[in-house]
Amino acid sequence: MQDAMNKSADAGFENTFRALLKAAVKESLAELEAERAGTDAYRDPGMYTRKEAAALAKVSLPQLDQWIRSEGLPVFRVGRNYRIPADEYHAWLRKHVASGRGGAEHV
After folding, report:
1. pTM surpassing 0.85?
2. Quick one: pLDDT band at residue 106, thresholds 50, 70, 90?
3. Which of these, 52, 72, 46, 57, lies nearest to 105 by C-alpha position?
4. The domain at 47-99 falls in which architecture?
5. N or C: which end of the chain has fewer CB within 10 A?
6. Strand order, beta sheet including 47-48
7. Pairing, β 47-48 against β 76-78
8. Residues ≥6 apart with Cβ < 8 Å to 75
């Protein structure tokens, strides 16, 4: 009888473990798919991607990359991706538009 109870407990543990493992794998796959698609499922709304920042300033991605490399646009890397803090981005744009640098016509 004790053996039957142990087997039942082991089976219950195994089923719970499998369910948790399956959920964790599913979540990890969703995150990888989002990264490959250029989105971030857990993205901070106070941050822009390169694509979002370029669209807001109505410039091309190469122009935005030039701003990052040469003009001091504030960015940081998350893995292989850049993230641009929204408040710093808007302040940078205002400063560079006012000085006639940066290439953006308006903010």
Report:
1. no
2. very low
3. 57
4. Orthogonal Bundle (1.10)
5. N
6. 47-48, 81-85, 76-78
7. unpaired
8. 68, 82, 83, 84
